[in-house]
Structures are given as structure tokens and as C-alpha cells.
């Protein structure tokens, strides 16, 4: 996939205020400070697209980005670009906010994930520097109960040795096997090294193509 353009569109306080669901949509979510904004910027090749912050809990709304892209095989010509949405969701857990504010966020995220009809897949971001965390596993189990399609993106793979990253990824997938019969697709990424970018964009391109084919049937 070749990204032609990526622009910020709107921030919404609830799913009913989101843009018209007229194209494929991919949401990104993870624990606060997992490197979500950096990964989004790396994927779109625009370092100023999503606001990065060292302070957890910076994202508080449903943030939509309008993406235009071409298939990797496209060379020149007048082919119309594919249009899709990339969504930056608030992190789950630990932002220093009141209990009521946290519950409000959680309800907003749940409603979006369960009711947004054009949502193709959720990228759940996992910090590859750490051993499996209960909070991440619980959130993934919740997605399973809600029947929300998702895949995993292990972040910050350049911040630890390859041996440690590989072990943490394996341990996380092994932990999932205790409750999951089939494991989702997963990607090991680094925003700084652009690791995993091509594979993630290929996954989105394939999903876009499948969505278009379904629409045309």
C-alpha cells in the first residue's frame, strides 16, 4: 500500500457523532503510553499527524483521520485512490482522571467498538518490552465477548533486545492460547525503525479489497 494522503478529520465524544460510516475503518487502541500516536504517524508517514505525548491519557476522544491510498502494485495512471478511516481511540487504564471520567471513557469506547458498523478491525497495541499484562489480556477477552475483530501490534521492538522482545511476544500469545482457540494476526513493530509498517499496510490493503468485493456482490 502507498499512502497518498493522511489528514486529521474530527474528534468525536461518542460514536453517534463520528463521520458517516461510508468506508472501511481501522481503530487503534492500547494501554496509555504504549506508543499509539507514534505508530499511527509511522504508518501514515506523517510525524505530525497524531499528537504524541509523554503524558498518559492524552487522547480523550474518538479521533478520525481520513486516509487515501493506492495498492502497492499501482504505478501511475488515473486510478482513484482507496479511501478509509484510521481511528485513534483513548488508551485503556491508568490515566490520572476521576472514576466517573474513566467510566465515561470506557462507555464511549465500548459503544464505538460494538456499534460502529464500518469498523473492519481493531489494532490492539501491546508494549513488547514487557511480559504479558493482565490488563491487555482482559481487554482482548472483552473484545472476544463483544465479537469485535482485532489483531495485535507489539510496539517499541527496538527498545529491547530481539531475544527479550521475541520471548515477550511468545509469552503473550501463549497466554492467549489458554482461552483462545485461534490466535489473531500479529505484527511486531517499531515506530523509529519503521518495523512492521509494510506488513500492517498490506493487511489493511487486503481488508479494504475484501470489503470492496463484499460491497459489490
Characterize the structure shown.
The chain is an alpha/beta fold. It is 35% helix and 24% strand. The chain contains five helices and seven strands. It has a seven-stranded mixed beta sheet, with helices on both faces. The longest helix is centred in the C-terminal third of the chain and has 20 residues. It is globular and about 45 Å long. It starts with a strand and ends with a helix.
Task: Please tag this protein with its features.
217 residues; alpha/beta; 7-stranded mixed beta sheet
Secondary structure blueprint with pairings:
Blueprint lengths: L1 E11 L12 E6 L5 H9 L17 E9 L11 E7 L10 H17 L3 E9 L6 H13 L3 E6 L6 H16 L8 E3 L8 H20 L1
Parallel strand pairs: 2-4, 2-5, 5-6, 6-7
Antiparallel strand pairs: 1-3, 3-4
* Number of extended strands: 7
Query: Helix proportion of residues, in percent?
Result: 25-40%
Distance between the termini: 24 Å
Query: Would you tell me the overall average pLDDT?
Result: 89
Q: How large, in whole angstroms, is the Cα Rg?
A: 17 Å
Count, helices: 5
Please give the largest β-sheet.
Answer: 7 strands, mixed
Oligomer: single chain
**Numbering strands along the chain, what is their spatial order in the largest sheet?**
1-3-4-2-5-6-7
Structural class: alpha/beta
What percentage of amino acids are in beta strands? 15-25%
Q: Which ranges are low-confidence, i.e. pLDDT below 50, for 5 or more consecutive residues? A: none
Give the ordered list of helices and strands.
EEHEEHEHEHEH
Name the overall outline: globular
